[in-house]
What does this fold into?
Amino acid sequence: MIGRIMVAEGVPQDLTEAVTGVTDSTILILLLVNAFLIFVGMIMDDLSVTVVIAPLMMPLVISHGVDPVHYASIVACSAVIGANSPPVAPILYMACRIGKVSIHHAVVPALQLIAFVALPVMLLVTFVPELSLFLPRLLGF
It folds into this structure.
């Protein structure tokens, strides 16, 4: 329902105009989208980010030549990084509960993993579209 209200109010168009008013660089726009999705992923669960927030940003990235399948890969990487980042970190809390480990012992290694593995992978997925599009193109899409 929230997504429909935002679309009816023209939020995607306003977002596109606001961001393109700041910069026209595709690289900066993709970095802003990544940062925004990580931030939103920190306070919302990944399903809500994917269903509500990602479609609002889709006109912005498509207007700059980003393939929708590539954008879906960007959303997935960013949302997962956000979902594993404090303060909310629902996936991290669930993993700690399953592993019977204190969250205080898991935060530093999780942040190191995010910094040295997840962020570089996200940047590769963002700026090397062939990684996301190879298999769909191979299958004829």
User: Anything to note?
Assistant: The two ends are 31 Å apart (CA to CA).
